[in-house]
Amino acid sequence: MKIVRFRLATNQDKDSVLDFCKSTFSWGDYIDRVWDIWISEPNGMLLVAEAENHVKKPIAIIHGILIPEKTIWIEGIRVDSEYRKQNLATNLINQILEYGRRNGAIHSAAIVSIKNEASKRLMEKSKFEILSKWSYISTNQIILPPTNNLKGNFKIADSNDYQQIINFLGNSENFKSSGKKFVNSWRWHDLSEDRLFTMINNKQVIIVRKNKNNNDDDDKLQIRGIAITDREGYWNNQNIFQIVYIEADSEELLPSLVNKSLELALQHNEKHSYKNKNKYERIQVFSPYREYNSRIFTKSNITFSEQFLLYCKKIQDRL
Ligand SMILES: CC(C)(COP(=O)(O)OP(=O)(O)OC[C@H]1O[C@@H](n2cnc3c(N)ncnc32)[C@H](O)[C@@H]1OP(=O)(O)O)[C@@H](O)C(=O)NCCC(=O)NCCS
After folding, report:
1. CA 40 / ligand 1 centre spacing (Å)
2. CA 120 to centroid of ligand 1, rounded, Å
3. What is the domain range of residue 48?
4. What's the pLDDT tens digit per position in 54-67?
5. pLDDT in tens, 94-148
6. Is the CB of 79 under 6 A from ligand 1?
7. Can you give the pLDDT at residue 47?
8. In this structure, are 24 and 159 located in the same domain?
9. Pairing of the two strands 223-230 and 205-209
10. pLDDT, mean of residues 222-231
11. Residue nearest (by alpha carbon) to ligand 1 atom 26
C-alpha cells in the first residue's frame, strides 16, 4: 500500500468509516454513536488516513480531544482490517500528539481494554505507560443481588461532609492507585477537590458511614465507602445511570452501595425533575480495580464486565 495522507474527517467519510467499524469488537462498535459528536466537538480533531489507491476513501481513524487537565485524550483508533500492521495507528497517534503539543497539552491519555493485546502493544510502542487499572460493569438488571441485609448508613453527601470525604480519599490507597481519576463520558479526568465540591453540591456523591450506635453523632462517624454518580447519561444515551467512581471498605458493602446509589438517584430525580424519573435502561459502574470488585461483579450475573487500563504519556515539558 502506498501511504497515505492524513486529513481531517469530513461528513462524506462517515459511511465508509462506519462500514469498517461495524464489528470491531465482539459486541460491535460505538463509532456510529459518536461520529456526529466528534466531528463537531470543539477542541478536538477527528482524523482519517486515506490510501493513495483509493479516491478519498478512509481506511483508518482517530479522535483526539483537549481536556482540561492539559491533556490530549485519544480515543476511537480504528484501522480497516485490510490495512493493519502497517504503522497506520502509530502514525495517527503521532499526528494527534503533535496537535496536542501545538495546543498546549502536556500529557496524553487513553483507555484500553485489558483483553486488547494489539492495542496494549500499540500504546506501549508509542511509549505510553499504565497509570491505573479499572473495573467496569454494565447491567440492565436494575436490582443487583441483595447483600446479607446489610444495613449501611447511606446518604447523599452535602457540603458538611466535604472535608471528611477529602480526608477519606486522601487516605485511600484505592483512590491513589486509580491515579485520582473519575470517568466522564468515557474520558478519565482528575477528581480534584474543586470538582468534588461541585459534585457534592450537585448531589452526585453518595457516602456510607459506619452503622451508628445510640448516642453516636451521625456526621462524625467514619466513612466506609463512596460512590460518585452521574444521573444524566452520556452521548446520546440519556437513560444510563453511571457510577463514575466507587470504593468501599469491604466486599459486601460494594453491591449495597451500588444499589443504594441508584435508589437515592431515583429519589432525587423524582423530586427535582421529570427526566429519568422512574427508571434507567442500564447501569454502568466504573471502579478502580480491586480483586474483589472484579469477583463480585462477575458473580453478580452482570450482563457485561470488563477491565480497562488507563495509559498516559508526558508529551512535553510544562510551558
Ligand atoms: C489496534 C489497532 C488500532 C492497531 O492498528 P495498526 O495500524 O495495525 O497498528 P500499527 O501498525 O501502528 O502497530 C503498532 C504496534 O502495535 C502492535 N500491534 C498492532 N497490531 C497487533 C496485533 N494484531 N497483535 C499484536 N501486536 C500488535 C505492534 O507492537 C505494532 O508494532 P510492530 O509492528 O513494530 O511490532 C488495529 O488492530 C485495530 O483497528 N483494531 C481494532 C480496533 C481497536 O482495538 N482499537 C483500539 C481501541 S483502544
Report:
1. 27
2. 8
3. 3-105
4. 566 899 999 999 99
5. 999 999 999 999 999 999 999 999 999 999 999 999 999 999 988 876 555 555 5
6. yes
7. 98
8. no
9. antiparallel
10. 96
11. 118
CATH number of the CATH domain containing 203: 3.40.630.30
One-letter amino acid identity for 25? F
Q: Whose CA is nearest to atom 12 of ligand 1?
A: 87
| 172 and 277 co-located in one domain | yes
d(CA 80, CA 24): 9
* CA distance to 163, 174, 184, 265, per residue, from 166 (Å): 5, 14, 20, 22
- Name which residue sits closest to atom 42 of ligand 1, judged by CA: 78
Cα distance between residue 74 and residue 257, in whole Å: 31
pLDDT recorded at residue 118: 98
The per-residue b/e assignment along 171-198, b for 16 or more CB within 10 angstroms, e otherwise, is ebebbeebbbbbbeebbbbebeeeebee
Co-location of 278 and 154 in the same domain: yes
CA 218 to chain centre: 32
Looking at the fold, whether 160 and 303 belong to one and the same domain comes out as yes
Q: Residue length, the chain? A: 319
Ligand 1 atom nearest the C-alpha of 75 is 48
User: Which of 1, 80, 121 for mutating ligand 1's site (highest number of atoms within 8 Å of CB)?
Assistant: 121
Residue of 17, 18, 24, 79 best suited for mutating to test ligand 1, as the one with most atoms within 8 Å of CB: 79
Beta strands in 198-256 (DSSP E): 205-209, 223-230, 240-248
Of ligand 1's listed atoms, the one at least distance from the Cα of 123 is 16
Predicted pLDDT at 142: 59
Neighbours of 131 (CB within 10 A): 18
Tell me what pLDDT residue 103 has: 97
In this structure, are residues 283 and 139 in contact, taking their beta carbons and an 8 Å threshold? Answer: yes
More confident residue, 148 or 295: 295
Q: What is the distance in A from the centroid of ligand 1 to the CA of 175?
A: 31
Question: Ligand 1 within 6 A of 87 CB?
Answer: yes
